[in-house]
Amino acid sequence: MCTANDIENIPGPLLDRMEVIRLSGYDVPEKVAIAEQYLVPKAMRENGLMLPRKTLHTHDDAVITRESHTDHESQQNQSNKLRDGVPSTLSIERSALESLVRWYCREAGVRNLNKYIEKITRKLALQIVAEGEKAPLTQKSSRKSDTWIISDKNLNEYAGKPIFTNDRMYEKDPLPHGIVMGLAWTSMGGE
Asked: What is the pTM of this model?
């Protein structure tokens, strides 16, 4: 089993012997769910905002994550506990994640979404440490709102200006009706 972003680089004789399964990218609700369940908690743990997951060490130094299959919600609360000194209101709201997906990260996967979430959590961690130590921050890094909740209203303070500002490429159709804009690409295999 293997994965590839582009099958053009796979040699023809090998490709003939493979079964190719094409998978489409994630849609908006899937990206938001991935961000809520995996990307945000991971970034918050990696940047010191959340306690690490509890682990058990076996005799051969393999690490096993402790998971309780009896009560999923208590497991989530236990593994997503904020560290001491981190404001209890600190969170990234669903509206912020939806805005990230819609206005910053339109690619099929979640790599750029993960990068933006990591950027936001690093900035939050810096602000918490600076306020705790009463250290001055630059205008760009300082907190502009009085809350620790990241929403679509204050997202641009943490992620910058949106890359995409409109759902449409053109406000007015530049071509007369009946003409289709598109791009076609073919490869001459074996040449």
From this structure: 0.70
